[in-house]
Write a structure and sequence with these properties.
12 helices; 0% strand
Length: 243
């Protein structure tokens, strides 16, 4: 009704839109967004959560889609611990939301949360290979070791290698040529696998624990005939399209 303040906040600073977005109430979100005076960027005073962050955290795809239709939406808003919607979707493995956010021209992949990880690191440390693939393809900067916190660096490298092997028949074929070798997979082979999948954007991690972790995952994947690789000719990289 006219005169009703749709942006009124509770004592903790939450708005009706934040509550509806978090709880997945699509119809209520639509009603609120129909009001041009609804402020989609208001944040909770306690934790900095906005409606977009509130909808992303539990994976409410339709609500995220509705919010992104508002031209004034701030897709890079960070909460109290510096997480963005893209970080949340990457970490919690919501590829549909990640792809929606990546279509926003203003989305910033370089932002870091308080521990110092960006969205690529968040996806890699959770092993979300499909999301890693999309993020690296969308990124204009190189993927370097220092973007990953030390304690998850080896785990992230494993995800990048797995992502590369599952994305390209050329990568798998290149690795298979070393299947009978008794010695550890050379660092140059790892670099070549990553280059085949991602171009020159990947920098192979130098730390020995990372190299050891990659050798382990390469050895397992090299022996495993069940590794899923999308249909493609050996001379042409396939698009990453997991089920």
């Amino acid at each position: 009704q006219p005169g009703v303040d749709v942006n009124v906040r509770t004592s903790l600073g939450r708005t009706a839109l934040i509550f509806a977005a978090h709880n997945g109430h699509v119809d209520i979100v639509r009603l609120l967004l129909a009001r041009p005076d609804t402020d989609v960027n208001l944040e909770c005073r306690v934790d900095g959560t906005t409606a977009l962050l509130a909808a992303t955290a539990p994976g409410h795809e339709e609500i995220v889609r509705l919010l992104l239709r508002r031209p004034e939406i701030n897709v890079n808003k960070q909460n109290a611990t510096c997480w963005t919607a893209l970080m949340l979707a990457s970490y919690r493995n919501f590829p549909v939301i990640v792809k929606m956010l990546l279509r926003c021209p203003s989305v910033d992949l370089s932002l870091q949360n308080r521990p110092g990880a960006n969205c690529i690191a968040m996806a890699a440390m959770k092993g979300n290979a499909e999301i890693v693939w999309h993020l690296i393809r969308a990124s204009n900067s190189s993927v370097k070791p220092d973007m990953f916190p030390d304690h998850v660096r080896a785990q992230c490298m494993e995800t990048l290698i797995c992502c590369a092997l599952r994305s390209s028949c050329r990568c798998k074929a290149f690795l298979q040529s070393y299947r009978t070798a008794d010695s550890p997979v050379p660092r140059a082979v790892m670099a070549r696998i990553l280059a085949l999948a991602f171009g020159s954007q990947i920098v192979v991690f130098e730390r020995q624990d990372c190299l050891d972790a990659v050798e382990r995952v390469l050895a397992v994947l090299a022996r495993d005939e069940r590794v899923d690789v999308p249909p493609s000719t050996p001379s042409s990289p396939a698009s990453y399209a997991p089920s």
